[in-house]
Specification:
Layout lengths: L26 H22 L7 H5 L2 E7 L2 E8 L2 E10 L6 E9 L1 H7 L4 H13 L7 H17 L12
Helix pairs in contact: 1-4
């Protein structure tokens, strides 16, 4: 179920306006839902990483924390360990699938200005580490990751990361 980009309330799939705040719903609705899915996956992956690798999220300036209690998942995301998005998910299983989401706190203006552009790079970095969790990161991959992050910080352009080579 989608959420309002203005207040975070759940809205019907076909709604043109938010029933809580009256905001006109547009493409930003899909952006926020996509970001929530990616952040949820980032949080789950990050929890499984060795401690020394968990700091990579902060390398881009985005803090993501996820914890689960039974079938309830709690996601917090923001910058410098301050949460600008708190959401609760009812998880279907151990994966990122969920049946419902309730956004408890969402500072939209701050989020769009400071964090929205960090979600996709952070998600890619999470996948990058997760894919290499068993065999480790090669020197080549380590250099590629460092260069991608440095380029992004300097220019704001995300070049992407090398895919895991299948040998």
């Amino acid at each position: 179920m989608p959420f309002c980009h203005n207040c975070g309330a759940q809205v019907a799939e076909t709604a043109k306006f938010c029933t809580d705040c009256g905001a006109r719903l547009n493409d930003k609705l899909d952006d926020i839902n996509e970001q929530l899915k990616m952040l949820l996956q980032v949080g789950i992956i990050k929890n499984d990483l060795p401690l020394q690798l968990r700091g990579w999220v902060n390398d881009l300036g985005l803090f993501v924390q996820f914890r689960s209690i039974g079938n309830l998942g709690v996601l917090k995301a923001g910058g410098m360990h301050r949460s600008y998005l708190d959401a609760k998910f009812i998880l279907l299983d151990e994966s990122t699938a969920y049946t419902a989401c309730e956004i408890e706190k969402f500072d939209r203006k701050t989020w769009e200005r400071r964090f929205a552009h960090l979600v996709r790079p952070t998600h890619e970095i999470a996948r990058f580490f997760d894919d290499r969790s068993e065999e480790g990161i090669s020197e080549h991959d380590g250099v590629a990751l460092t260069q991608a992050i440095q380029h992004f910080k300097k220019t704001g352009e995300w070049l992407g990361l090398p895919k895991k080579s299948s040998v």
